[in-house]
Amino acid sequence: MFSTALLFRLTCLFLLPIVPACEPMVQLSQWTDVPMIGDRARQQFILRLEKEYADIYGELPWITPEQADRAEKKRAALLSRLAPLAEWGFHGTKLDCRDLSPGCRLCGEGLWSCLFINNLCTGGCFFCPSEQNSVDNPTTTTLVFNRPADYVAYLETFGFRGASLSGGEPFLTLDRSIRFADAVKRRFGSDIHLWLYTNGLAVTEDSLKRFAYAGVDEIRFNIAATQYDLGKVRLAIETIPRVTVEIPAIPENRNVVMTKIHEMAEIGVDHLNLHQIRGTAYNCSKLASRGYSFLHGPRIGTLETELTALSLATETLESGIDLPINYCSLIFRNRFQGRGNRLRFASIMKKEWEDVTQAGYIRTITMEDGTTGRIFRNERNADHANLSSSTISLSYFAATVHPRVTYRNPYKEVDLAEGARVVVERQRVAGDIKLPPEEAALFQKLFILEETNRLTREDILDRLQTLPNSGDSVLMDRWDRIVECETIPWGLLEYF
Fold first, then answer.
1. What digits encode the pLDDT tens for the residues 324-357?
2. Buried (b) or exposed (e) across 172-198, using 16+ Cβ within 10 A?
3. HSE-up (13 A, CA, CB side) for residue 161
4. Which of 395, 410, 492, 496 is a Cys-bridge partner for 364, taking CB atoms 3.0 to 4.6 Å apart?
5. Three-state SS for 98?
C-alpha cells in the first residue's frame, strides 16, 4: 500500500509543468545595453514601494534622472570592458557564469530551499535587512519546521536539489543546525547540495569538523562582518569540501576587497559572490547615512553597490586572477527565486486544461465561440486551434505555499510526514484579459507556437506594430500584463 504522501509525490513527478529551461550562457557583449522595462511595470514598482514604505518613502534618497543617466553610462562602460571576459546567465542578470557554485546554479534553476535556522546574530552589520535578536524556530517561505524530519519531507515532496542553513547565524545554535544538516544528508546524500552561511565569528575548528561529518558540501563566509579577516576561511578550507566568500559589494571597502581577492585566490577559496545591497525598513536609514542612492524595482536596490560589484568583477577578470567571481544582482534574485517558488507549487494547483508559463504562472485560455460557448484550451491542443477566428480571454494565477489555510483562495492540503502538512493556494494575479482575433493569433504565435525563451520585451513590441491600433495605450497595457506573466525579462534593471 502506498501512503498518501508517497502517492502525492509520485503524482507530482508526472504533473510537473514543462517550461523552457534557462538559456545557455551568452557572451556579455550581447548585454552592454540594458533593456527598458515598460511604463506600466515601472509605475507598478514605484507604487508598490510607495505603499510598502509609506512612512519613509518621501525621505529616502531616490536616484534622480540626472544621476540615473550618469550611472547608466558608467555601467555600460563596465559591461563593455567585461564583454570579452565574462558570460551572462539567467537572462542576463548574473555574471560571471562560467564557474558558479553548484548552489548558485540550483538557486537560479528554482531548486533551492533556504532554511533560516534561527533569527539570531551578533555581527551587527549595517547592511543586514532585519533585526537578528531572537533564536526563533527554523523557517522557510512562511513555513515553520521544528523537526528535521518535517523539513526533510518538505524537501522530498517538492523536489529540491539544494538546501542551505542560514539565519541569523547557524553557529549560534550549533546543535540545532547540526541536527538539520545531518538529517538532510542522511536522507539525500549526494542527491542534494547542502551549504551553510556564516559570518565566521562563532566558527571553531571543532564545529567545522562536526558540520563536515554531517555531510555539509559548502560553507559561505560573510567576511565583511569580520573586517575582511580570512582566518576562519583558511580554517574551513582544510575541513569543508567547498569554501565560498559571499559579501555585499560595499563601495567604501572596494579597495580592501580587491586586495583580499588576491589573497582569496592564493589560499584556495573556491568562489567569490558579490551581492547588491537591498534596502528595507530596518536598514534604509543606515544605508542613506552612507550616501547610497536608492533604486526602484521589485525591491529597493542600491546604485553604488551594483557599480562596485561590476567594478570588482572587471578588475578581477582583467587581472587574470584565478578566482571565480559572481555578481548576484537584486533583480536576479527577484526574478529567478520568485519564478522557482511559483513553478514548484504550480503543478499542484494547475488544472488539466491549463499550462504554466515561462515565468511560472498558471495560464488559462478561454475561447469564446458564438455557437459552442466557452472552450478551455491548453498548449497541447491550442496550437491546433485557429485562435485568429475567435476572441480569447486570458487569466493568470500564482501558486503559493502557506502553513495553514487562509480562506482567501482555492487551496489544497499536502501531507508531509507524521501529521505535518502545508497548504498550497491558487491566487489570481491577472484576469479577463480579452484579445480580439488579430491579437489572439499573435499571442498564439508568440507564446505557444514559437520558442519564447530568448524573446525580449522589445521583440514583442516590434511584433505588436503589425496590429491595428498598435500605439493604443489600452492595447499596450494589456500586452504589458501578458508579457509580465508569460516571460522572464532579460537584462539588468534600468536605473530610475
1. 999 999 999 999 999 999 999 999 999 988 999 9
2. bbbebbbbbbbbbbebbeeebbbbbbb
3. 12
4. 395
5. helix
- Torsion sign over Cα 86, 91, 92, 95: negative
pLDDT digits (tens, 9 = 90+) for 77-129: 999 999 999 999 999 999 999 999 999 999 999 999 999 999 999 999 999 99
The answer to whether residues 289 and 325 touch, using CB atoms and an 8 Å cutoff, is: no
Instruction: Specify the pTM.
Output: 0.89
Q: Is the CB of residue 164 less than 8 Å from the CB of residue 197?
A: yes
Contact call for residues 374 and 115 (beta carbons, < 8 A) = no
DSSP-derived letter for residue 62 is B
Say which residues have a Cβ less than 8 Å from residue 120's Cβ, sequence separation at least 6: 132, 133, 134, 135, 136, 167, 168, 169, 172, 173
**Nearest to 214, CA basis, from 141, 163, 273:** 163
Rounded to whole angstroms, how far apart are CA atoms 81 and 28? 9
Other beta carbons less than 10 A from residue 10's beta carbon: 11
Name, in order, each residue with C-beta under 8 angstroms of 426's C-beta and a sequence gap of 6 or more.
Answer: 349, 362, 397, 398, 399, 409, 410, 411
- Confidence check: pLDDT of 43 > 50: yes
What is the pLDDT, as a whole number, of residue 372? 41
pLDDT band of residue 377 (cuts 50, 70, 90) is: low
The answer to whether 390 and 368 are in contact (CB under 8 A) is: yes
Distances from the Cα of 197 to the Cα of 101, 177, 431, 491, angstroms: 14, 11, 40, 28
Domains and CATH numbers, the chain: 4-340 (3.20.20.70), 352-486 (no CATH)
Q: How far apart are CA 204 and CA 210, in angstroms?
A: 10
